[in-house]
Amino acid sequence: MNxxxxxxxxxxxxDLKRRGAKIGDQLRRIYEDVAQEDVPDEFLKLLEQADQKxxxxxxxxx
Amino acid sequence: xxxEPEKLDDKAFKQELTTLIPHLRAFARxxxxxxxxxxxxxxxxxxxxxxxxxxFHAGTxxxxxxxxxxxxxxxxxxxxxxxxQPLDPEVAEATLLSSSNPTDSLELLALRNALAKLPxxxxxxxxxxxxxxxxxxxxxxxxxxxxxxxxxRVSRARKAVIEILESNxxxxxxxxxxxxSRAFDDIMDQADEIAGAPTI
Lengths: 62, 200
What we know:
The complex is a heterodimer.
Chain A lengths: L7 H28 L5 H16 L6
Chain B lengths: L9 H22 L3 H17 L10 H15 L12 H11 L6 H11 L3 H12 L4 H8 L3 H21 L12 H17 L4
Helix pairs in contact in B: 1-2, 1-3, 2-3, 3-7, 4-5, 5-8, 5-9, 6-8, 7-8
InterPro entries (chain B): RNA_pol_sigma-70-like (IPR039425), RNA_pol_sigma-70_dom (IPR014284), RNA_pol_sigma70_r2 (IPR007627), RNA_pol_sigma70_r4_t2 (IPR013249), RNA_pol_sigma_r2 (IPR013325), RNA_pol_sigma_r3/r4-like (IPR013324), WH-like_DNA-bd_sf (IPR036388)
GO molecular function (chain B): DNA binding; sigma factor activity
Keywords (chain B): Sigma factor, Transcription, Transcription regulation
């Protein structure tokens, strides 16, 4: 640990940036992990049901 | 891009909404970590979006529009079960481990754990911008606040996550200018401890 004191601040800024970038990559992975899962059938079924309710229910316009 | 009509017909709306389901699920999961509750919330938002389709303007960003609906549902319906989040850190940790992807690397587990400790406004800003790829302007519209507010939440959240990850490893001294890779080894060590604790 013989880092120069003067560059300490600069160094930690660079570190912070690097770590921030890494965290960014990982965040995208956490989100993508879910986004790339197969959508459970229930979602499509529910949307289909809602759509059919509309066409068979009281149609107020068209 | 050809000029779009003001409103999408129902079929086109349904098609576009269907392509957004994975994103609704991912955003919901970031708000309430429990996978079942998150899907509950995502389904509710999907149906609300469908019912509100008349108010959607074609050519505008449906993803941001639907996220707004999801977020409003999450915050306004406090009685709903998806608001219930484990407060006990041990319970939270067990939930995290049991509901997360088994192929997660240990560093991802550490990050998930750190995210769970953030104030929810910071967490959602970081998720929307950092993970969901929303522009600051879109995230601001979704959260109903100024662009500057989102920017500062994201930056505070980033800083906080780094601090949480670092504070978890006792040997770290911020003055020593430890290298990123070394810091990461330590995060891994810390995640090891987490992974060693409960069984699924």
